[in-house]
Amino acid sequence: MVDLSAWPAGMRLIVRAERPHPGAQLRGTDVDGNRITCFATSTAGGQLADLELRHRRRARCEDRTRAAKDTGPANLPLHGFDQNRIWLELVLLAQDLVAWAQMLGLSGHEARRWEPKKLRLRLFSAAARLAATGRRRFLRFNPAWPWAEPLTGAIDRLRLLTAPT
Start and end of every Transposase DDE domain (predicted)? Predict the structure, then answer.
Protein backbone atom coordinates (compact mmCIF):
# COMPACT_ATOMS: atom_id res chain seq x y z
CA MET A 1 0.00 0.00 0.00
CA VAL A 2 1.28 3.48 -0.85
CA ASP A 3 1.35 6.07 1.93
CA LEU A 4 -0.11 9.30 0.51
CA SER A 5 0.01 11.27 3.79
CA ALA A 6 3.08 13.26 2.66
CA TRP A 7 1.48 14.15 -0.68
CA PRO A 8 -0.39 17.44 -1.24
CA ALA A 9 -4.09 17.50 -0.40
CA GLY A 10 -6.31 16.17 -3.18
CA MET A 11 -3.62 14.04 -4.83
CA ARG A 12 -4.70 10.62 -6.05
CA LEU A 13 -2.68 7.70 -7.29
CA ILE A 14 -4.48 5.75 -10.01
CA VAL A 15 -3.14 2.24 -10.58
CA ARG A 16 -4.17 -0.04 -13.40
CA ALA A 17 -3.30 -3.63 -14.23
CA GLU A 18 -3.53 -4.57 -17.91
CA ARG A 19 -2.40 -7.46 -20.05
CA PRO A 20 0.58 -6.56 -22.26
CA HIS A 21 -0.06 -6.61 -26.00
CA PRO A 22 0.86 -9.85 -27.80
CA GLY A 23 4.60 -10.10 -28.29
CA ALA A 24 5.45 -7.53 -25.62
CA GLN A 25 8.57 -8.13 -23.57
CA LEU A 26 7.60 -8.86 -19.98
CA ARG A 27 9.32 -6.82 -17.28
CA GLY A 28 10.37 -7.69 -13.76
CA THR A 29 7.66 -5.40 -12.39
CA ASP A 30 4.85 -7.30 -14.13
CA VAL A 31 2.64 -9.16 -11.68
CA ASP A 32 0.98 -12.44 -12.70
CA GLY A 33 1.39 -11.56 -16.39
CA ASN A 34 -0.24 -8.13 -15.93
CA ARG A 35 1.56 -4.85 -16.52
CA ILE A 36 1.05 -2.38 -13.71
CA THR A 37 0.79 1.28 -14.77
CA CYS A 38 0.06 4.22 -12.52
CA PHE A 39 -0.12 7.99 -12.54
CA ALA A 40 -0.77 10.71 -9.97
CA THR A 41 -3.32 13.46 -10.44
CA SER A 42 -4.77 16.29 -8.41
CA THR A 43 -7.85 16.58 -10.63
CA ALA A 44 -10.96 16.41 -8.49
CA GLY A 45 -13.66 14.14 -9.87
CA GLY A 46 -13.88 13.07 -13.48
CA GLN A 47 -14.21 9.69 -15.04
CA LEU A 48 -11.24 7.38 -14.83
CA ALA A 49 -11.21 6.89 -18.61
CA ASP A 50 -11.02 10.68 -19.18
CA LEU A 51 -8.15 11.06 -16.71
CA GLU A 52 -6.24 8.21 -18.31
CA LEU A 53 -6.78 9.61 -21.82
CA ARG A 54 -5.41 12.98 -20.70
CA HIS A 55 -2.40 11.24 -19.16
CA ARG A 56 -1.69 9.26 -22.34
CA ARG A 57 -1.94 12.41 -24.46
CA ARG A 58 0.62 14.01 -22.19
CA ALA A 59 2.89 11.01 -22.80
CA ARG A 60 2.59 11.56 -26.57
CA CYS A 61 3.61 15.19 -26.06
CA GLU A 62 6.67 14.04 -24.11
CA ASP A 63 7.45 11.56 -26.92
CA ARG A 64 7.52 14.48 -29.37
CA THR A 65 9.90 16.32 -27.05
CA ARG A 66 12.17 13.27 -26.88
CA ALA A 67 12.06 12.88 -30.66
CA ALA A 68 12.93 16.56 -31.08
CA LYS A 69 16.35 15.85 -29.60
CA ASP A 70 17.15 13.84 -32.74
CA THR A 71 16.47 16.86 -34.94
CA GLY A 72 18.88 19.39 -33.49
CA PRO A 73 18.34 20.69 -29.94
CA ALA A 74 20.70 18.14 -28.39
CA ASN A 75 23.73 19.91 -29.88
CA LEU A 76 23.70 23.66 -30.32
CA PRO A 77 26.02 24.29 -33.30
CA LEU A 78 26.54 28.03 -33.02
CA HIS A 79 28.50 30.19 -30.57
CA GLY A 80 26.16 33.04 -29.65
CA PHE A 81 22.98 32.86 -27.59
CA ASP A 82 20.87 34.66 -30.21
CA GLN A 83 22.21 32.45 -32.99
CA ASN A 84 21.35 29.30 -31.05
CA ARG A 85 17.90 30.72 -30.26
CA ILE A 86 17.26 31.14 -34.00
CA TRP A 87 18.60 27.59 -34.56
CA LEU A 88 16.12 26.22 -32.00
CA GLU A 89 13.22 28.11 -33.58
CA LEU A 90 14.10 26.60 -36.97
CA VAL A 91 14.36 23.12 -35.46
CA LEU A 92 10.96 23.48 -33.78
CA LEU A 93 9.43 24.74 -37.02
CA ALA A 94 10.86 21.73 -38.87
CA GLN A 95 9.55 19.39 -36.19
CA ASP A 96 6.06 20.89 -36.48
CA LEU A 97 6.12 20.54 -40.26
CA VAL A 98 7.21 16.91 -40.00
CA ALA A 99 4.52 16.14 -37.39
CA TRP A 100 1.78 17.69 -39.55
CA ALA A 101 3.06 16.00 -42.70
CA GLN A 102 3.08 12.65 -40.89
CA MET A 103 -0.43 13.13 -39.59
CA LEU A 104 -1.94 14.43 -42.84
CA GLY A 105 0.14 12.65 -45.47
CA LEU A 106 1.22 9.24 -44.26
CA SER A 107 -1.28 6.44 -44.20
CA GLY A 108 -1.18 3.60 -41.76
CA HIS A 109 -0.83 3.79 -38.02
CA GLU A 110 2.79 2.59 -38.05
CA ALA A 111 4.10 5.19 -40.52
CA ARG A 112 2.54 8.01 -38.53
CA ARG A 113 4.57 7.03 -35.49
CA TRP A 114 7.99 6.83 -37.16
CA GLU A 115 10.72 8.64 -35.26
CA PRO A 116 12.92 11.27 -36.98
CA LYS A 117 15.78 8.80 -37.52
CA LYS A 118 13.48 6.35 -39.29
CA LEU A 119 11.91 9.14 -41.37
CA ARG A 120 15.38 10.28 -42.40
CA LEU A 121 16.35 6.76 -43.43
CA ARG A 122 13.14 5.85 -45.25
CA LEU A 123 11.71 9.07 -46.68
CA PHE A 124 13.98 12.11 -46.48
CA SER A 125 16.99 10.40 -48.06
CA ALA A 126 15.03 9.12 -51.06
CA ALA A 127 16.85 9.03 -54.37
CA ALA A 128 14.70 10.41 -57.16
CA ARG A 129 14.97 11.86 -60.62
CA LEU A 130 13.43 15.20 -61.53
CA ALA A 131 11.92 14.91 -65.00
CA ALA A 132 10.48 17.83 -66.96
CA THR A 133 8.04 17.44 -69.83
CA GLY A 134 5.39 19.71 -71.27
CA ARG A 135 6.12 22.57 -68.83
CA ARG A 136 5.51 20.21 -65.92
CA ARG A 137 7.96 18.64 -63.55
CA PHE A 138 7.70 15.16 -62.12
CA LEU A 139 9.60 13.57 -59.29
CA ARG A 140 10.27 9.93 -60.15
CA PHE A 141 11.31 7.41 -57.54
CA ASN A 142 12.74 3.99 -58.23
CA PRO A 143 9.68 1.68 -58.11
CA ALA A 144 11.79 -1.09 -56.58
CA TRP A 145 12.63 1.11 -53.60
CA PRO A 146 10.54 -0.26 -50.67
CA TRP A 147 9.39 3.17 -49.46
CA ALA A 148 8.39 4.63 -52.84
CA GLU A 149 4.66 3.95 -52.42
CA PRO A 150 4.30 5.49 -48.93
CA LEU A 151 6.24 8.57 -49.99
CA THR A 152 4.40 9.14 -53.28
CA GLY A 153 1.08 8.51 -51.52
CA ALA A 154 1.98 11.09 -48.86
CA ILE A 155 2.98 13.65 -51.49
CA ASP A 156 -0.32 13.09 -53.35
CA ARG A 157 -2.38 13.42 -50.14
CA LEU A 158 -0.56 16.62 -49.14
CA ARG A 159 -1.12 18.12 -52.61
CA LEU A 160 -4.89 17.55 -52.27
CA LEU A 161 -5.09 19.66 -49.12
CA THR A 162 -6.61 23.09 -49.54
CA ALA A 163 -4.56 26.10 -48.56
CA PRO A 164 -5.66 27.90 -45.38
CA THR A 165 -7.46 31.18 -45.90
Answer: 6-161
